[in-house]
What we know:
Layout: H1 2-12, H2 15-21, H3 25-35, E1 37-39, E2 48-53, H4 57-67, E3 72-77, H5 78-89, H6 112-132, E4 137-140, H7 149-157, E5 161-165, H8 176-181, E6 192-195, H9 198-205, E7 217-219, E8 237-241, H10 245-248, H11 260-283, E9 288-292, H12 297-309, E10 318-321, H13 326-331, E11 333-337, H14 342-349, E12 353-357, E13 380-382, H15 385-393, H16 400-411, H17 418-431
Parallel strand pairs: 2-3, 2-4, 4-5, 5-6, 6-7, 8-9, 8-11, 9-10, 11-12, 12-13
Antiparallel strand pairs: 1-3
Amino acid sequence: MKKSILGSLFNKFGLFCLASKINSSKITAIIFFLTCSIVKSKKRNAPTMIYIHKGIGIDDIKAMAQYSNEINYIIIQSSFLREIFKYFFGATIYSNKNLHTDYHYDKNLFPVDKKNQYRNFISDTFIFFERLIKYDGFICSNYVYGYLQELSMFAKHKEKIYVVLYKEGLVSKKFVDRFIQRYTNKKFIGDVFLTYNNFIKNAFIKSNIDGFTSNNVSTVGIPRLDFYKDLKTSEENIVLFSFYPEDKFSYLENESFFNSNFKNQIEKISIDFHAYVIEYANKNLKKKLIIKTKFPKKYSDYIYKIIKQKNLTISDNISITNIQNPISLIQNASVVLGYNSTTLIESLLLDKKIITPNFYNVIPEENNIDYFLEYKDLAKVASNYNELSSFLSSDFCLDSILAKQFLEDYISYNNFQSSQNAEKTIIRYISR
Length: 432
């Protein structure tokens, strides 16, 4: 905790930019060392990997440390590297939509002299960092981030292993090839690319994207889902994992049908679904409803906007939160509601019933990322209040056989072995 606070202070006062400005890679390395977290393996002579912390990827690392524990982890915040990156390429760099796409190709956005300066700074920083603490390589959550491109090339140059534990790509099988097309101009510079399932793996292998081969892409599952092992469950609450249309459907922005009418339809379905759930809870006061949003304020604001727009009340049996642990929420849920979220997959691991909104009539099937597209019987689809009320009031059962098929298909489910799969694969590449 102390290190997290220290890191926040360093970031807040721009000390990473300052270190860059005075060209002090040594100071940067020392700051990295002072602010990093270290998770140690109980195994003697375990390899050590630096994890560039971004989003939910940290939960995968925590699971690997708990359920496999064959690797030491040094955790460095990605925001620190982004601050340094901003210093070299300009404060407005993140306003450019081609930020990650064109690092290796756009000489206007990324001038050669600036790239050389950034490359030297990153190289010097991590060379000095190794004098403070030894490490074998790096793990990050995607290969496309502009600020990590020089780090991956540094790893290659210094014969450090570079691993991508890919945290994207949970989309329908029908859309996965088109999903990966957006990475066409993004070069993979690394040793191994770990995916959730085989159809994501195969899509990258056949994509012809520079850097991918059949030898460096491997399926391991989702390590963080190992936390669901041996969990005892109850059926106390209705849980809605709120979804935000602008986030969920941004991938369709370049499609010909993405116009104001389409956006209005999507928005209406989303607003109505949230409103139906709240209305149901208001009419069934003995049933507790928990609405979970993402942390930034705009997501909870979205809920309150719907409440105001629909003239809804919030009864005492309804709570709205952005901090509760999703695992505990699912663990104690009688039914889980949401849209195209990993929380729905996590719910299946605990045999929870699922209800989703009906976007099927609006989004063309070939453009639909919903991973229940080929498993429609797994989730009840509510198009209106009466359907939702009927589902929530009935005692329908989850098709456990179909759920097992889905889990094997989408997350390579193998009885909570993903953490071990991931670490064994990483160690195998280190040994090479």
